[in-house]
Amino acid sequence: MQPLSRRDFVRCAAGVGALALAGCAAGRPTPPAPTPTATPSLPTTQPDLRHGTLDTRLGATEKPTWRLALPTTRPATGTILALHALGGSVSDWFDGLKVGPYADELGLAIAAVDGGKSWWHPRKDGSDTGRMVLEDLLPVIEKEGAPTERLGLTGISMGGFGALHLALQIPAARLMGVSTISAALATDAAYVDEVAFDGKEDFDRHSPLHHTERYLPLAIWMACGRQDPFFAANKKFADALPRALTTFDQGGHGTEYWFAHIDGAMRFFDGKA
């Protein structure tokens, strides 16, 4: 596979937000993931759903929307924070991937917030949607009944990058773990784009591959298709983490792959709270 250009790096990441792109690599479509031989056993219970808008000075958009699923059959023992992809929104999780029913299945609250296109880290425009999640979203969902003493992080593409970034901002004793699908990771600064990073220095500061030693104690689960343009970086990152659980199988950067692996990403947190 040819190296990913800066333009293609953002194009690929942007596709997940709309949950509509089959994938791209070096300007060419990536083969979508094959249809799973067995459909995952997805939960169907109806959670207690809450929603609202967030008052924040750190958001990439004005009054970002948040959504929360609380279990109805037992008290939640922790909360999973789900980070969407470039161009995405909370709807990707609750209307597209339909993760709400996992609240009862896992006994965990599930929360998401609109993060715009800021890549979940501090930007030169003054936004910092990662900090927004921790400083502004958590107090709101805690008032709604979500326990915030134990947190899990999950994300797709740009959201996978964001989940790994936020994992280093949360004390390890408070973190249940991190699960990512098709995380938008790059191996070097050649992939820097102004949409994702504010230059090489910003990339070097925030790239998980530059700080792998800090992830060694953490519980991490990763899935990425071998035809995904981000596969090489995902594998390089995972290879540096002996404890990481990985599913590196056939598939591209697209909805079929994400739907096929969302069950694994969510059930990774079962029993961890």
Describe what you observe in this structure:
- β9, α7 and β10 form a beta-alpha-beta unit.
- The strands form two sheets. This protein has an eight-stranded mixed sheet, with helices on both faces.
- The relative contact order is 0.19.
- The chain is globular, with a radius of gyration of 17 Å.
- The longest helix has 15 residues, at 129-143.
- It has 273 residues and is α/β, with parallel strands linked by helices.
- It has helices spanning 6-15, 90-96, 102-106, 129-143, 158-167, 200-206, 231-239, 255-267, and strands at residues 24-25, 28-29, 48-53, 65-70, 79-83, 109-113, 151-156, 175-181, 220-225, 245-249.
Element order: H for helix, E for strand: HEEEEEHHEHEHEHEHEH
Mean pLDDT reading: 87
**Could you name the ranges where pLDDT drops below 50 across 5 or more consecutive residues?**
20-39
**Helix-residue proportion:** 25-40%
Cα-atom radius of gyration: 17 Å
- Strand order, biggest sheet? 3-4-6-5-7-8-9-10
Structural class: alpha/beta
What is the tally of beta strands? 10
Note the quaternary state here: single chain
Please name the defining characteristics of this protein.
about 270 residues; alpha/beta; two-stranded antiparallel sheet; 8 helices; about 30% helix; about 20% strand; globular
Secondary structure layout:
Blueprint: H1 6-15, E1 24-25, E2 28-29, E3 48-53, E4 65-70, E5 79-83, H2 90-96, H3 102-106, E6 109-113, H4 129-143, E7 151-156, H5 158-167, E8 175-181, H6 200-206, E9 220-225, H7 231-239, E10 245-249, H8 255-267
Parallel strand pairs: 5-6, 5-7, 7-8, 8-9, 9-10
Antiparallel strand pairs: 1-2, 3-4, 4-6
